[in-house]
Amino acid sequence: MLKFLGRGAGFSDKNNGACFSSGSRLILMDCPLITFIRLKNEGLSKFASPGADGSVSDVKELIVAVTHTHSDHVGGLAMTIHYATFILKMHVTVIAPSEEVRQDLDFMLTRLDGCNKDTYSLITAEEYMRDGGDGSAWMKAVIPTKHVPALDGRCFGYNIEVDGVNTVYTGDTRTLDPFIPYLSEGSVLYTECSAYDTSVHIYVDKLIEYRDFFREKGVRVYLMHLDDEDTILSKVSGTGYEAAELA
After folding, report:
1. Contact 192, 171 (CB under 8 A)
2. I need a surface site. Which of 26, 42, 149, 234 has the fewest CB within 10 A?
3. CA angle, corner 14, sides to 231 and 37, nearest 5?
4. Long-range contact list for 46-50, CB < 8 A, 24+ apart?
5. What is the pLDDT of residue 56?
6. Percentage helix, strand, coil, to 5, in the chain?
């Protein structure tokens, strides 16, 4: 299961960001400011998953998989790299979902935030899956999606493996259609959900229309990026949908 450091939408105090462990790697799904704050204040091992013997291994590698470049998703990225460099003495791998997003992140990290390129790696998901060896097995696919028109072609979700379970993470999206083919029986879906009917996020009433499909496939659904948590959880009562679990 993913651990969420925050599950709020763009205007929340605790923006949406999650993490999980793969061996000695701590993998972050996006890196909003709350992710940096909690990693700094609570330590990386707090968010690492215990092994079969119940012990938690030291985190030796920090990886960030970026869905898109809105500030509520990457606002803590440069600070996390700086902190890892100067305090943790740890290299950071940043995974961009496409070459275009990689170039955008390169400008942000290098030109705007002054991150030293020797202290982190910035690669595309395609490169990571191709060259990462067994350590990249957790990443199964990058899924293009639609969010805001200004970022057309630059918004993505991920198909990943978490604790041996096929998992789909939508990032910000206005449609579930691109993700349905990746939901095999018994999968886990982390999807954004909005209490407001806009053209850029999935409206909760629309999401409820999928409940029979998810039940038939045995897909467990967890809601994230919540803009009005009380309203959303009231509406999904009885559907089997749950709020993503906070760490």
Report:
1. yes
2. 149
3. 165
4. 46/247, 47/3, 47/5, 47/19, 47/21, 47/247, 48/21, 49/3, 49/20, 49/21, 49/163
5. 54
6. 35, 30, 40
Residue bearing tokens 């309203």: 231
Cα(123)–Cα(244) distance, rounded to whole angstroms?
Answer: 28
Neighbours of 117 (CB within 10 A): 10
Sheet holding 92-96, edge to edge: 3-6, 17-22, 25-29, 61-65, 92-96, 120-124
203 and 209 Cβ atoms separated by less than 8 Å: no
Phi, psi of 30 (to 5 degrees): 65, 170
Record the tokens describing residue 57, joined without a space. 């291994």
Residues of the chain above pLDDT 90, percent: 92
Structure token pair of residue 128: 């990571």
User: pTM surpassing 0.85?
Assistant: yes
